[in-house]
Amino acid sequence: MDDIRTYQMLIDGAWVDASDGGSFDSVNPSTGAVWSRVPEATEADVNRAVEAAHRAFTKGPWARMTPTERGKCLRRLGDLLADQSEGLGRTESFDTGKMLKETRWQARYIAEFFHFFAGCADKVSGETLPIDKPDMFVFTKREPLGVVAAVVPWNSQLFLVAVKIGPALAAGNTVVLKASEHASAPMLEFGKLIEAAGIPPGVVNIVTGHGEPCGRALTGHPLVARVSFTGGPNAARHVLENVKRNFAEVSLELGGKSPFIVFEDANIESAVNASIAGIFGATGQSCVAGSRLYLQEDIADDFLARMTALTRRIVIGDPLAEDTQMGPLCTRAQLETIQREVAHAQEQGATVLAGGRQPDGMGGLFYEPTIIECPRQDLRIVDTELFGPVLTVQRFKTEEQALELANDSEHGLAAGIFTQNSARSLRMANAVQAGIVWVNTYRVVSPIAEFGGVKGSGFGRESGFQAIHDYTRPKTVWVNTSDEPMANPFVMR
Length: 493
What we know:
- The active site is at residue 253.
- The protein is 37% helix and 21% strand.
- It has helices at 43-58, 61-64, 67-83, 85-96, 100-120, 157-170, 185-196, 211-219, 233-242, 268-280, 297-312, 332-347, 399-407, 422-431, 466-470, and strands at 5-6, 9-11, 14-16, 23-28, 33-39, 128-129, 136-144, 147-151, 174-179, 204-208, 224-230, 249-253, 259-262, 292-296, 351-354, 370-373, 390-396, 414-418, 436-439, 458-459, 472-480.
- The protein has a seven-stranded mixed sheet, with helices on both faces.
């Protein structure tokens, strides 16, 4: 027990335990062993964090900083993140089972998001309005909202934190970040960089705990002005109930069941590699995972022969090892869901082409990369997000049929289209119901590009310059330039 790492929360610039001493254990999914212990925040802890953020927003040095000064803090934070990418990546791999080669790269690349938003900080401006009233000078300015509650899941934590607190801080807000109860350690390690970046106490606070009471108390707190939530639809419904109490602005990113469409004229080698990356990269634990594969009939057999051959050669193992290509799932609940849904799909007539079970002789939460061919669209597995390495496959004849199948989903986060017909790629990109469309590539991100979904995948956008506007509100200022006294007070001008 002596080797279990103990963490504290970041509240008002200090590292603290839960007020009642409560904590919970975090398990390394590769080994099944407890490796760290994290505070279980009480409602009082959440209240302290929000009040600290509110003070920092209204009275502290952050409130007096110029946008350029805030930008410099974000740039330093990005630099520190890049410098510490090895250690942060290793912690994330311990806590989530994600491969070190990915977590380390991601931590280093996410620094670019903070650099991007650092540059945006002093580029936010209002407008001068050509008003239709004489003797009136009217302009708008954009002001920060206040305290932002940022709720992130365990997967892609540093990316999701960057696209939330990056624009929030650049715009002048303060933040209370709730880390996932499934993997809190990377966020707490990241919190150590906040003070080093010159960000004043209380501007960024990090609390750890479960939905009750931590998540409820945070998202419904009367001093919270905006909730930025990434997670599952059930938790999102609770968030929407909670914000009835404070009327906070809300953005939701709720995952997806993204279609990956391959036409007969596609570059098959490229499409196969992209599909493997889209569903088996990060062990399928990605909100944009291309988990519904649609193949035009003429190339389906060739495509599946190539893909299943490559899938069977994927190296499963220790996420810290450089030759590993796929690590474990993060939680036992995911594993149990996948096992249940794969079995149910077979009962409904689906055929397992590869995988479909846990690998022999391995402990932990490992599951083989799995390809399942489905005879019909109405199989439950086709539109159930499993958050794991499970790909459903169907065949189509025409472009119209492919579009119908792709859009027949509760979700609408991402889509992949593979074709060398540029006209068709544009037709499909315009018609598919998704917030992100990749053509002849997949799973690419940039701080410059907006990210978000439609339908059951939520609403609102993250990343890109527009994100700054989402963390501000416009104020309209009317200035009377006339020296004449006001006219009839009972007549609106």
